[in-house]
Write a structure and sequence with these properties.
about 130 residues; 4 helices
Length: about 130
Amino acid sequence: MIKKMKGFDYMLYATLTVGSQEYKLRLSAKVAVDVERKLGGKSLLSLFGEGNLNDLPGVEPLIAVLHGSLQAYEHGITLDKAYEIYDQYIEDGGSYVGLIQVLIEVLKVSGFFKGAPEKPGTTAQATEK
């Protein structure tokens, strides 16, 4: 889901709900560059290929993007905690493809391509739940 913070119309974020916990996700420019470095210089957009199964990223790059996305609003979450969040997401009925959909929404709200809502209060469903 994409939300704008109340009182801060310019602060978009996507959400990931795992159990009863809702995490706010967004990539800043610095964190995006850090994640790309961890991925060997591969562009975040290129991670998702052209939609072919052979083009989809492995779990490790997804967790790297998830971890980076958590840093803007969920301060102090470690990479190990990001793995735990992913595991809990899967245990709660989420899926690998569902997480890809959430991370695509993160890229939208982070300005990688168009698609984020333009009006305050507008939301778009990104999770399977």
